[in-house]
Predict the 3D structure of the following.
Amino acid sequence: MFAYIIRRLTYGAVTLLALSFIVFVLMQQAGDPLQRLFGNPLLTPEYKENLRVLYGLDQPMLTQYWIWLQNFVQYEEGSGQILNGSTLFGSLAVLVVGTALLARLDRQWKGAAILGLWAVAGLVALRSIEFRLDWGNSFDSGAVKVWNEVFERIGGTFRLGIATLLLALTIGVALGIYQATKQYSFFDQVGTVGAFVAFSTPIFVVGVGLQILAAFYLERWTGVKFFFVAGMTADNYSQLSFLAQIGDIVRHLTLPALSIALISTAGYSRFQRASMLEVLSSDYLRTAKAKGLSRRKILIKHAARNALLPIVTVVSLDFALIIGGAIITESIFGWPGLGSRYIEAINGLDYPVVMAIVMLIGAAIVVMNVVADILYGVLDPRVRYD
């Protein structure tokens, strides 16, 4: 299992490297990020050229990419000397090649050998190197570090993503199980049609529709403001009591989370229904029924657990969809997260911010896929990774 995880992480690192190059090239083709500043008549040609040199925009594209790649993970020795970025990437290359060679060995001890290799590398790094991530400065915000700007907003996106996932899993899995137990009933047919309609509706249509129906018209009909359509908290949030703060968070979070969760819920319910129907027709459930077990125990203890296996894989693959939905939803609802900042950075051709957010999302997707593989093995003892 350990060798498989390391192999997957190695492949993930190569994928992220390719992703970074493709996104960097696309951003370069989009235009000059400093062009809008050059419209200011007060800027002298010397100042404009100094700006280009400062941000490295006077270099060829491949040179710019190599400089960004070296500086993306910049670290220092304990003595404070800054090491050359090529040393870091050379060490990582040796580590990756060693891991790949050990993983291909047909020996029982290969997992322990790979673990030892990474343990030694980690020990050396911790004793002699102080890691410091330096993602550069934002073009829009001047001297503001991209690292600080990204991690100031990541909390909002994380809150929205967790709420979306919980809503989608809770509603989607419950609907799928119930539809499977009531196959071809009126409820099952309505749920099937509703799932296809929800899955086919663009997320911006869902977001705007919820704003109009659940916020504007609901307040107009009842005279009570149940939900907010912009922001993450109220202006007087710090002055509210603890319970009032929770209520304020829920009222701001509900509509954006629902707009993303609706599409995921449709997919989860379909997968769960199909998986549950397959499990319900299996032989071991017939044996459980013949032994006199109650229907509730059969469904919850035996059927539901095995029927959840496909959902584990779907959730990991759906992580990218949730993040993509958050990018659009945050812009619609004015949610201060990574998604809205990502749109701003693309519109402003802010290369450092775009690259940082893309790499962060890509790394999260790689990790989520590995976690899904591990959970799959935990839920199904028959799964083995050699």
Q: What stands out?
A: The beta strands are 74-77, 129-132.
